[in-house]
Amino acid sequence: MAANKPSRSLLSLLQKRFLLTSSAALSPPTAPLPTSSSSSSSSSSSPSFTVQFLVNSCGLTSKSALSVSKKFQIRENNLQNSQSVLQFLKAHDFSETHISNLIEKRPKILLRRIEDNLKGKFDFFIENGFAGQLLPQLILSNPLILERALDSHIKPSLLYFKSILGTSEKIIAASKRSLFLLTCDWNNIVLPNIDFLIKEGVPVDRVAKLFQFHPQVLQRKHDRMTYAVNTVKDLGLEPEVSIFIYALTTMMQLSESTLKKKVEVLKSLGWTEEEIFRAFKQDPAILRFSEEKIRSVMDFLVNTVGLRPQTIIANPLFLHYSINKRLRPRYNVLKALESKKLFDEGVSIRSLLKMTEKKFMKNYVAKYEHSVPGILDTYKGAQPLILYPESLQAVLLPRFVFSLLGKFGDARIKEGILMEGLEKMAMRFFRIQKRFLATQSTSNSLSSSSSSSFTVDFLVNTCGLPLKSALLASRKLKLDKKNLQNPPSVLQFLKTHNFDETHISKLIEKRPQVLQSRVEGNLTPKFDFLIANGFVGKLLHDLIINHTEIFKRALHSRIKPAFSLLKSILHSNENVVVALKRSSRLLSADLNVYQPNIDLLRKEGVPVDMVAKLIILNAGIILSKRDRMVAAINAIKNLGLEPDNTMFVRALIVRLQMTETTWNKKIEVMKSFQWSEEEIWGAFKRYPQILAMSEEKIRSAMDFYINTLELQRQIIIACPLCLSYSIDKRIRPRYNVIKVLESKGLIKRDKKISTLLNKSEKTFLINYVSRYVEEVPGLFELYKGAAMRTEKDA
């Protein structure tokens, strides 16, 4: 009895902690967070006005705001400029995250004058290709650029960098790699180094590559650059060879003393100086490794794997590999296969060490999983559980329970686990979890008897599904504990294709049967085909997760023919990817459905590039039934739009997206505003999307234009695009601003309001809001609808 006392005490402790944690997670917060108004009126120790503004208006965390406020203060009576700066940034596509990150880095931007400082710089950036999201990316890569003079620094440096790199994206990439690239003394540092490299014979495209991927090299002192170039040339590498810039990058990163130390380390391991520099010319990165890295890899390859030093010298790439993540796991697998006489002795071990991860996993791990039990664990470096308590999380305990234990921080928990033994302790704790779940109400838990089934346990603990999702999935999938070879193979296969835990859990939630798919007979050939045709990385994940039907479709009779047809129309893998992202059904749909539609469009005279545009804009349309496609084509032609007209496919998309009844209702709505049929079809041919809008949208837009703005019907008919604008987000705010500016005599009353409504957001904000903020206090608030909301609340 005495022996069980520590165990019972420990279980009591765990149960209490589990119940407390769970109840806290299930309970609503007891009190709302204080608002800015309440906090500002609280005690004298409340945050300063600057901190409140940074938190409430700029989106900084309290911690960041406090840190920033030590270097920077905003006066309450001089707040207008800071608010104008925030609005200016938002008008240039800076999100809340962009703004908070920028202000954390350079808070004094809130004190910048818009007209004299920011506007000119932003306009220059936009004119030179930094539009949309590229602009905030550029500024955030180095906010210090806003403190440089536009004419004497920003313009000449940015234009010169663009002449070398070619695109805005490459400039941003280079700036992210070197914090001071855009603000350094480019004329006296960067420019002489670039001119020197070109003069020495380095091709301009290689200089651009060096600039993009290692810009910090070009910011070093010129005498250092001269020394490095001459040293690399003395080793026998000519400036025009492709490896020269990589050797130069390495040499620029090493002092003369560090270079000598690296050479001495290699000499101590049996390399001659000639061999060292021959290997360096093959792979310059070998001299960037730490002395410890060089020694440990050489020791493992020579003394454990048994490679000759000459083999490593001939293959310097080996020095890149991680011992624990690549070399040792592969060596362990090969030794296991050798012991079972499954390894072909004619295969060179160096070729196996250089083999890609996917290929090694397929040919030397997955292939022998049944004949060599535990080989996957050997490859992944699995050790006895007692040596690695953290592995208990994945093997014995549900993940959300293990989070309760943390890193075994409580000494009593640790002691109890060691006394009782891991497996026994885990099973006891698992029973606590089951008992707890069984007592919860159905609204907060899932107390089904199947929650303890092997299938549910596997989906939760191995596949990462939440318990609720696992219970739902278990209705479609039953796993046999005694015959569980396939699901682990599927999971490992997905991981080798870079599916992370979130991808895998989403996929299994949508199609749990994928765990029963055969890797070799089903998954491998489909994945190989998709990858070979451009679906790599995120594109592959998105396609598989969003269209799990692909697992049911035959590769040769359905997927390949569909892909070939699409590519024959769209011409490139990239366009096929775009179309499939809009309708992944195209890859598994019956060719007999959409091949006739494509043929019909071509026969009717729709140019092949327009058919491609139709598929890219709305790929699902091509899957319409043939009789609907025929009717829609004839209807559009009868309106006077010929198939070779660029608007034909857009009109066709709109017509196919609605039934005959809905189509007629839209026409009647337009007629109710005194549009004649001729006017409706004239507007439709100019902007087909007007009939894609809801009846309510059409009514509200027409009502506002005619009864509030007092526009003539002919103006709207001539500009049907106006009907697509949001009344609350675009039209009403602009109308409010225009009326105020007219009332103060700041703009002429004869200014065409329809013209103002069509201006871009940026142009309108700059010319009609920012321009007059000083003469019309509160104009920003009015534009953003604050005044309207206040009036409504009153």
TrEMBL record:
Renumbered residue ranges of the record's region Disordered = 25-45
Q: Which GO terms describe its molecular function?
A: nucleic acid binding
What span is annotated as the signal peptide, if there is one?
1-25
Question: SMART domains given for it?
Answer: Mterf
Biological process annotations from GO: DNA-templated transcription termination
At the top level, the lineage of the source is: Eukaryota
Q: Say yes or no: keyword Transmembrane helix present.
A: no
Pfam families, per the entry: mTERF
What InterPro entries does the record point to?
MTERF, MTERF_sf
Which PANTHER family does the UniProt entry name for this protein?
CGI-12 PROTEIN-RELATED, TRANSCRIPTION TERMINATION FACTOR MTERF2, CHLOROPLASTIC-LIKE
Q: What protein is this chain from?
A: Uncharacterized protein
Q: What is the lineage of its organism?
A: Eukaryota, Viridiplantae, Streptophyta, Embryophyta, Tracheophyta
